[in-house]
Amino acid sequence: MSSYAADFTAHLAGALSHIAPSFVHPSPSSSSTNLAAQATQSHEDAVDAREQEMRAILAKLRPSSSSSSQSGAASTASASSSLSGRKSHSPAHLKPSHLAHLVDAAFPPFQGQASTPLSPQIETVELVTLAQLTIATYGVVLRVLMDEANELERHDEYWAAVESEAWNTALYLVQSTPVRAFSLANVTLTRLRQLMSGTLRTTESSPPSLLHLTTWRRALPPSLFLTSVFPHLTGGSSGLPSLEDLSRAELDPEPTSPSPSFTTPQSSSNALSFSRATKLGRKTARSLLFLTLSPLSLTRDEVATYRTKIRDERDELARRIGELTLRAQESEVGELLEEGRGKRGVKRELRKKPGLAQLFSVSRQGAKEGQVELGLEDVRQATWQTLIHLDSVLTPSSAAPRMSSTPSPPATPADLAHSLSYLLNQTLPAHSRAFGQTSLLLSPPGFWTRSWPYLLSIPLLSSLVARAVYNHRLTLHQYALDAASTIKGFLFDWVLEPVRKILDTLRGGSADEVALMGRESLRSDLESLERMVVDFARDEWGLSGRETDELARKVRVGDLTEVLKVWEEDIKSPIKSTLRGSLIRTLLIQVQKVKVDVALATSGIEKMLKSQQLTFAFVGVAPSMLVLALVGRWLRGLVRRDRGSGKKRREEKKRCWLVVRQLDILLSSRSSSSSASDSTSAAQTQGHLLLSLSRLRSHTSTPSFPSHDTQLLASFLADIRALEERGARAVEGERRELVGRVREWARALRWDEGIRV
Asked: For this UniProt entry, which segments traverse the membrane (predicted)?
């Protein structure tokens, strides 16, 4: 994931690479007339070796330029081509130690006379290489400051969660109990040691007596114990009444009586009563303070103190980040170029502007047209001013910057490189150590501090659970067998068997499948009906073979008209027809006809069921598959809970929504006048703006952002870069438009889901 520091340093490195070839001019070709005036062969070899060394440093600094720097020609043109290699990787990703190693490798310390450049051409190459190293240092410092500010923000998020809920506050109080108990024991032992050794004194000249209760009350007041358990109460910095002021009367002796030569008995008694009233008021105030402040409220007040200090430290880091970026974003150099094209005084004005960032704000088109020429002295002065600026940003406010005492740059590139090396090896690590000490005091409790209640409860809970399991071992064993049998029956009877039936259906069915009727039942019933009708017609009417065939054909299609006519005649004289036998035969024929009709209906139903057999099979297996899907989703959620659960997605969207709100506040409160860009508040606002946008940049690497869509990602980062570059200098209308773009992204990515109830 790209960052603002990486994009910014890549832009500066590309600008320097574009104008670097104009600084390096090819050496004149050798001829027989000037061979004697040229350097010796060994000197030329040394020049070539130094060029190769600078080329190797640039290749390590920017890996993408290594291919262009491996040309075999040793001419000056090859050196300029190596200096102008195309950028694809920003040097801001380098570690400070790696960058310091590159500086020391390019310009080793304690060289003496060897630090003098071998030729003007080598001095040019060294200055341009040193400018590239300074740009990389600029990006590294900016990245370090932003990482430190993000670390403080993570601390603040933890303390905000502790402060927001009473349960978290109580849990933090329990977790920090051992630390508070150790502090209480240490303070108590120190005070007792001072009391026993006689080093504890009050305003009285004589040491206090150990036999008096007043001595112990003065040595161990309640406020001492409370401030040792809750150190934020010391000095009243928490906004509460200072316990030191309330308990100061305990350490002071009783007021002495006024001198009788200057006071009267009435005035002396008034003074004593006033003193007693004052002391009583302090005791009453202290007692009320102890009664009204519960441990939870004191703990919450302690957390609020931590958050206040974290915000102050983060504001200081934001101010430093703003100072770095605001000076780099100033466009006054470009304005001077536009106003003074063709004037000789432009170069002199350019030298007054500090820093490489302002120097390289010259447009490439202007440099191509030759309207403004930048020399090596400009690069030297800008490099030195950039180092002074970095040194002033990294140096604490209580100390004076080391480099600002020397306004003019060193004479040689080696001396300039030694200042850069000191910045990387001494100033930056000192700043990191100071921040580490501050961050350690404001950081959340460590792992063991947070985990000891759980680790301590494990043996107790384990013994209770083990005892309960042993006492109910038979019941639990039966439950386990029942659960195993249930799972096995579900898998075999409701999952595997229905799936097997579906596969059999797809293969065309099996011979032993259940049917509504036999395969030959309908045909045999129909043939029997046909024989009964033909025999009846032959006996009753004496039909020939052709006529019986026609009658059989009618029976096969369900036409029993002739038989029904006979039935209608027979029922007119049922007794006679019964004695003759025709009525019974026609009745049996109709019974057989009903049997055939039932068989036909059953056959139709069976065909319909077979046509829907696959549908029924899928309907039968669907509930079991749904149960398996739910169980699988639950198990996958347990395994991948750390990668994107719903709660984490909502938290991430909530943070992004709060960032958009903060951007709106920052840019709405920012003055549109450019004169305010040098003020402390403007630098702090710019720093907070970049820190807020860095959170949106980091959002692109979370699961809640559709990172698979590269076009969407590129558009999102383009809007973020526009806000980073123009947010601090834009007028009110443009700022509203830039914030409106971010709001559109918030609606499109549904960041408001994180704040919905």
From this structure: 614-635
